[in-house]
Amino acid sequence: MVTQPQPRYSVQWFEQIGQIPQQAWDDLAVPLKTPFLEWHWLNNLETSGSAISRTGWLPQHLTVWRDQTLVAAAPLYVKGHSYGEFVFDHQWADVAYRMGIDYYPKLLGMTPFTPAEGYRFLIAPDQDEDMLTGLMVQVIDGFCAQNNLSGCHFLFVDPEWQPMIERHGFKGWQHHSYIWQNEDFSNFDDYLGAFNANQRRNIKRERKSVAKAGLELRTYQGEEIPDALYGRMHHYYQDTCDKFMWGSKYLTRKFFLDLRSTYAHRVMFVAAYPQGDGQQPVGMSICLRKGEQLYGRYWGSDQEFDCLHFEACYYSPIEWAVAQGIQRFDPGAGGRHKKRRGFRATPNYSSHRFYAPQLQQIFHHYIDEINEDEQREIDYINQELPFKQKTES
After folding, report:
1. SS3 for 322?
2. Would the pLDDT of 334 be above 90?
3. Diameter of the chain measured on Cα atoms
4. What are phi and psi of 31, to 5 degrees?
C-alpha cells in the first residue's frame, strides 16, 4: 500500500499587500462577486496613504501557502478606533470600558471605508475550504492572543460564507443595507411601473427638474472615462465629506488618480454638465461594476441643483444598469433617500469573536434579541416602500 504524502501548508503575515504577488492574490479574488477584495483596489488604499497605520488601519494580511502556491488569504487590519467601518460597535466598546476591558486594538476583516457586502476568506477552489478556514481562524486566534487584541471582527460578510465562519466560532450581528434588484426590467419605464402613481409622478418631476436646470447627464465607463474626471471626483468627495460627513474624509487624491491606471475597467462615472458646455462637470457620482453587480460609492456637486443628487446617484445609474443587464445595485451607506426610490432594506451581517470571556458572554446573551429587533425594523421599512398595490393598474 502506497501512502500519499500530506499537503504541506505554511502561513505568513504581510504588512503590505504589495508584498504579495498580484497574480497569486487575484487568482483567488477575481472569481468572487465583489470587486473590493481584488489586489489593485486594496493596494491603492495602501499606496495612496488612505489605509495605513498613520490613519489607524495597520495592514496585517494573512496568507496560506501550499508549498510555493498561495491557496488562501484574508485581508486584515489592526484597528485602534472604529472609524471608517460603517458597523457602529461603540456600544460594545462602551460595555468593554465599563468592565475594565481594553476594546482597542482589535483585528478587523473588511475592505476599508467600504460598506458593501462580500467580505470572506479567499480560498482556492481546489482546496478544502472548511479545513483552511479552521486553520486560518486558529492562526488568527494565536495572533490576537500574542498581540493582546480584544477581538476579531469580519464586516459586511459574504452571505454564502457566513454559515462557515459561524461554524468556526464567530457570531453574526445583523444590520441592513438598501439594495435595488432588477426585476426583469427592460427599460427605465419598467422600473417606474413598479411604483404607485404618486411616486411615479414624483420621480418624473425630479428628473424634469434636473433638465430644467439646464443639466445634461453623461455616463462613462472604463477606457472612455476622461482622465480629468478622476481628480474632479476627489474634489467632490472632499467637498461632500466637509459638508455632510465631517470626520469621514478617508481617501486621498492619489487614490482617485491611481484608479485610472489600475482599476478603470471597474469604474463608472455619472457626470452632470451644463447643456452646451461639455468641458467641466458641475456634479458627479462614481460607481463600481463587476459582473451583474453595481456599487455606488461617492458623489458631489459644485452648487445645489434641485434633485441632482437623486439623478446622479440613483436614476441615471439605474437606467444604465437596466441597459447593461445589472441585476443588483448597492448605492452605498445611508437610506433616508434610497427607500423612496425602490431600494429595499436588505439584511447584511458582521461576524464577531471576543477574547475576553465576559465580553463574549454578554455579546452572545444579547445578540439574538438585537438581531430580532433589526429584522423587525427591516420588515417595517419594506412595508412602507412606495410600490403599487396588486390592485393598482
Report:
1. helix
2. no
3. 82
4. -65, -15
- Chain centre distance of CA 300: 19
User: What's the predicted TM-score (pTM) here?
Assistant: 0.95
Beta-carbon contacts of 254 under 8 Å, excluding residues fewer than 6 positions away, are 47, 48, 49
Per-residue pLDDT tens for 135-155? 999 999 999 999 999 999 999
Residue 281, classed as helix, strand or coil, is coil
Give me the sheet containing 151-154, strands edge to edge: 57-59, 77-79, 106-109, 151-154, 344-354, 171-181, 328-330, 293-301, 283-290, 267-274, 215-221
Query: Cβ contacts of residue 225 below 8 Å, gap of 6+?
Result: 260, 264, 267, 269
* Distance from C-alpha of 326 to C-alpha of 318, rounded to nearest angstrom: 9
Q: How far is Cα 304 from Cα 243, in angstroms, rounded to an integer?
A: 12
> DSSP characters for 84-123?
T-SS--HHHHHHHHHTT----SEEEES-TT---S-B--EE
**Structure letter (DSSP) for residue 312:** I
Q: Pairing relation of β-strands 293-301 and 328-330?
A: parallel
Report the alpha-carbon distance of residue 107 to residue 79 in Å, rounded: 6
Residue with cell 497574480: 23
* 71's grid cell: 491557496
In tens, the pLDDT along 235-261 reads: 999 999 888 776 678 999 999 999 999
- Return all residues near 392 (Cβ < 8 A) that are at least 6 apart: 196, 197
* Three cell numbers, residue 162: 457566513
Q: How far apart are CA 332 and CA 66, in angstroms?
A: 37
d(CA 114, CA 156): 9
